[in-house]
Amino acid sequence: MTDARLDCLLARVPGLRLTRDPADLAHYGRDWTRRWTPAPLAVALPGSVEEVQAIVRWANEERIALVPSGGRTGLSGGAVAANGELVLSLERMNRVLAFDPVDRTLTVQAGIPLQAVHEAARERGLLYPVDFAARGSCTIGGNIATNAGGIRVIRYGNTREWIAGLAVVAGNGDLLELNRGLIKNSSGYDLRQLMIGSEGTLGVVVEATLRLTDPPPPGNTMLLALPSFEGLMRVFAAFRERLTLQAFEFFTDRALHHVIAHGAAAPFGQAHPFYVVTEYAGGDEAAEAAALAAFEHCLEQGWVGDGVIGRSEAQAAQLWRLREGITESLAPHKPYKNDVSVRISAMPAFLAETQALLAREYPRFDVVWFGHIGDGNLHINVLPPPGMADGEFVGHCERVTKLLAEALSRHGGSISAEHGIGLVKKPYLDSTRSPAEIALMRGVKRAFDPNGLLNPGKLFD
To answer: What positions does the domain FAD-binding PCMH-type occupy (predicted)?
Structure first.
């Protein structure tokens, strides 16, 4: 190390893994947005809570900003280090620490990948139900930082519902033990919930106690082809009325086009404008009959044009690949992404307005829609036309995002459903939060991080 401040850190924390290798700086200094050039001071990879505390205390003394880092799979620039910050990667803190069979909780370090949590719960005959396509790369700490949702929110809710307790290093280096796994706790403010969704701006999550639940009954997966956009919410209502839904995911023909080009098999002999993949509780004749009745009703009404049921785990996985492979298939095109939400009851009107808005504002662009219709969450991916410069593309998309934010405000929605505000959505925070709320959030930030060193510039300046 050629920086005296880093020499001081290494003297303070003997054995700390610290790197300034250019490849590491580029790798750890960005997330999936790819819009900012990473320029961190260095990357620290602590192996213990005590090392995290020592790093935070050193940062306060040296006035060095810190960017907490998990799997960096976010799409809002929340894990970007572009201004000489120290990246604080939790990837080495990736162990299961404890399992309590009575409380049915699993205590883990924050750097553990979501997929490893799923496997640990499964080995104990239980389920951690938060799930999404990036499960192999994202970490529990990152999930907590953004209150991640995913594909089964319709049944299980967001990450917030499954956090029984947290260990957090605050902005001054103090270790906070929040809620301690209690089911009932009315002893003042619930700081655990305040940390969830705070994007690393209030503290560094180092450990989490996760609630587990029973595995669901056997489920079935069905892929539906829709001839028109207008029937989407009617199909959702028909299936929700007749079945116990675990997921209800929507995507367009353009999304399917990119996934097939990425290696997936076409599900039908002909193309359709819109698709839904839904998962529902099955396993008996009554559930099968209800699913068939829902499909036939939608078919008779003209809301659905075709459908297929996954008759085995392999077939179900093939159907889910059509939805879960979208983000990966789009990544090489460097899309501009919107991640928005409204109440389910507001979804029909919002979808109609948004479809018209995007058709008007993106006439030459490849616009790929998909989302968790069952919980009011829509993802909009805009791909640049051939030959358009990056700056022109981003500028055009930001102008349209401002219009989208105004539409969300009219419908009582949010500019960020599950990826946080970060850098990308910071200009549009006031479409979701009032001036009074933002002022209070700034006050909370000062209380937990008085020197403003934790993930500065994210959420708000």
So the answer is: 36-215
